[in-house]
User: Which sequence fits this backbone?
């Protein structure tokens, strides 16, 4: 990467959070004009991308396992902030925003990020390889999280309408944190080699582990000054995202209602917005034949979306009015079940071709179709 690229990236990631905060202050009391709302939407997207960038800078400096936690927490703050702001607006389906957003994140990661990564990687390299043991453990953790938080509430009888009782919700929150913490320890401390990119022969068969991803035999962590600057800008970006979302939430709900779309589409929009940076990073790694990293990003994002978001929402419900519906609808459960089966079949061989990516992307398309028109 040349210096011009680095300078350009540095400039926009510094300018965008500051502009977003200034726009927030300037329009907080008056933001009804369409032009102002458009500017708020653009600033919101830019602040999300900048926040993830600065979280990655801080994560690179502090190293593992704290680096992964910082990035996951930053993304979760964005997701939780968007969900809570929409829920607090009291819309017609506020009780299902958390469920719809988390489920959309699972479908986008399982089928969108994974499918696109496998398709792009296999199209360029014919076959792509990854460590089935590490990826399989990540997949198993996500499946367990989804079952406890999204599937089980639909079948319990102590509370009605796909909801948990306070005791059950507390258990789900603790179980989610436990599963997420156990996986982070496994990935970053106990069995780190299982999650490193791998080399393969012409038939896509595993031949070794790549321990130096950039090929220069050393990492180039940011300086202390860059780290502190990114930490401050990360805070600015996160504050901007949460409160810009609050300003924009009534417009999003009205637009969905005016278009005659189900309220669940709002959750899909939030998930796409939050997962955009991870999607871009996953595709870039796939083009470099680092599909293991792409899969780490995909399943790690799904894991954080459930394992950190659900406990955060559970705590927030102590102070918020209304109910929290977590149980999936029958159509959603069918899509989840099919996606889980396909994901298991995709991971098991430890290598994939373009067809595998196409299958996942078709499932993502099916999810989008039934979200728009149930």
Assistant:
């Amino acid at each position: 990467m040349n210096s011009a690229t680095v300078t350009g990236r540095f400039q926009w990631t510094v300018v965008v959070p500051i502009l977003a905060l200034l726009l927030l202050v300037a329009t907080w009391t008056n933001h009804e004009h369409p032009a102002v709302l458009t500017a708020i939407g653009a600033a919101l997207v830019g602040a999300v991308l900048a926040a993830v960038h600065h979280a990655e800078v801080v994560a690179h400096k502090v190293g593992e396992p704290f680096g992964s936690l910082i990035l996951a927490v930053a993304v979760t703050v964005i997701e939780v902030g968007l969900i809570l702001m929409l829920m607090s607006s009291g819309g017609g389906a506020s009780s299902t925003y958390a469920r719809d957003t988390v489920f959309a994140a699972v479908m986008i990661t399982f089928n969108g990020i994974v499918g696109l990564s496998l398709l792009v990687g296999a199209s360029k390299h014919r076959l792509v390889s990854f460590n089935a043991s590490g990826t399989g453990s990540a997949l198993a953790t996500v499946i367990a999280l989804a079952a406890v938080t999204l599937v089980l509430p639909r079948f319990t009888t102590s509370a009605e309408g796909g909801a948990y009782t306070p005791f059950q919700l507390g258990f789900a929150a603790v179980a989610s944190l436990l599963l997420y913490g156990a996986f982070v320890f496994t990935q970053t401390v106990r069995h780190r080699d299982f999650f490193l990119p791998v080399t393969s022969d012409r038939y896509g068969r595993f031949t070794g582990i790549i321990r130096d991803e950039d090929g220069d035999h050393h990492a180039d962590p940011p300086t202390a000054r860059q780290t502190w600057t990114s930490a401050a800008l990360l805070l600015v970006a996160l504050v901007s995202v949460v409160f810009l979302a609050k300003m924009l939430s009534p417009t999003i709900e009205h637009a969905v209602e005016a278009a005659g779309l189900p309220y669940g589409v709002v959750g899909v929009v939030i998930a796409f917005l939050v997962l955009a940076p991870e999607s871009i990073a996953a595709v870039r790694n796939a083009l470099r034949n680092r599909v293991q990293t792409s899969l780490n990003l995909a399943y790690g994002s799904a894991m954080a979306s459930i394992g950190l978001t659900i406990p955060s929402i559970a705590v927030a419900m102590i102070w918020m009015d209304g109910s929290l519906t977590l149980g999936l609808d029958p159509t959603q459960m069918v899509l989840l079940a099919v996606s889980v089966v396909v994901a298991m079949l995709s991971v098991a061989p430890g290598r994939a071709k373009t067809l595998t990516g196409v299958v996942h992307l078709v499932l993502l398309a099916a999810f989008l179709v039934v979200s728009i028109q149930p």
